[in-house]
Amino acid sequence: MTLFLTEAEVASLVSVRELVDALEQAFRDKAAGRAANVPRGRAVLPSGTVLHTMSASWAAGGVLGVKAYTTSREGNRFVVLLYDKAGRLLALLQADTLGQRRTGAATGLATRHLAREDAGTVAVIGAGWQARSQLEAVCAVRPIQRAWVFSRTPQRRQAFAQEMSRTLQLPVVAVDSAEEAVRGADVVCAITTSRDPVLLGRWLEPGVHVNAAGSNWAHRRELDAEAVARADRVVVDDLAQARVECGDLIQAAADGAFQWERAVELAEVVAGNAPGRESFREVTLFCSQGIALEDVVAARLVYQRARARGVGRELDLGLD
Description:
By secondary structure, the chain is of the alpha/beta class. The protein has helices spanning 7-13, 16-31, 96-114, 129-141, 154-168, 178-182, 225-230, 239-245, 247-254, 266-270, 292-309, and strands at 2-5, 35-44, 50-58, 63-72, 75-84, 89-94, 121-125, 146-150, 172-174, 187-190, 209-212, 233-236, 263-265, 284-287, 313-315. Strands 9-8-7-10-11-14-12-13 form an 8-stranded parallel sheet. Strands 2-3-4-5-6-1-15 form a 7-stranded mixed sheet. Helix 4 (129-141) links the parallel strand 7 and strand 8 (146-150). The mean pLDDT is 96.
């Protein structure tokens, strides 16, 4: 029997903080060859509707899975299919919340290995659905005392600041420009859908860590070329996927501000095979496209929790 889990059920079973630790182990396994990731593919209709598919195997976890989702003028719809090592379909999960939380967790994992240990302030550019888990994850791995948020819509950034102040029990302040948010921040998270840079290199101060998690299209970028060039260390979640999706690096390379030989995978940093932060003044950058391995790891944890707690609905799909 296959277990079906709704958005609400998934949300009740796993937190961003828990996923940071789950991803830590999975990325170590990826570095050791015990996990594999297949980059996202896209099928597009003339109407603009896009089907996105991505898959991964986690041998150490005994699972493999597929994430499929559509984006259109009517909205976005996400599902994850989780299989066991014999190919049996264990679970079918609605996966919007799952994706939001695993994206934040990846940022948290990168921040754990790349930000200064004393980082106490964070700036968030963007105040949408994904921004919440970005801020949660950074606060889970560093002693954050204060945060600033900017988005183009004053009402949205004010609402975000009020909500996250209550959730995290720390001051989250809405400000009038991205530069105001970034100046003086120890960690910066860019999480927008912008086609053009929202974070400029001239704003970055020595010692800052930047998470760029909003763009996974080659023609979109959140960082200008100077921001990429200023990074002493550039880390991605998957090199093969970044080479075709990471607009921040693709366009910086086209501008002559970046060479792909500088990029390393997060798995190598987590496993200790490549250096993370090496000095207080280094500028570090994590470019996150969001990879299927993160979805599979999150889905496995949710599935295990659901089975233990009797959550979800059994479906007889004839796929046992």
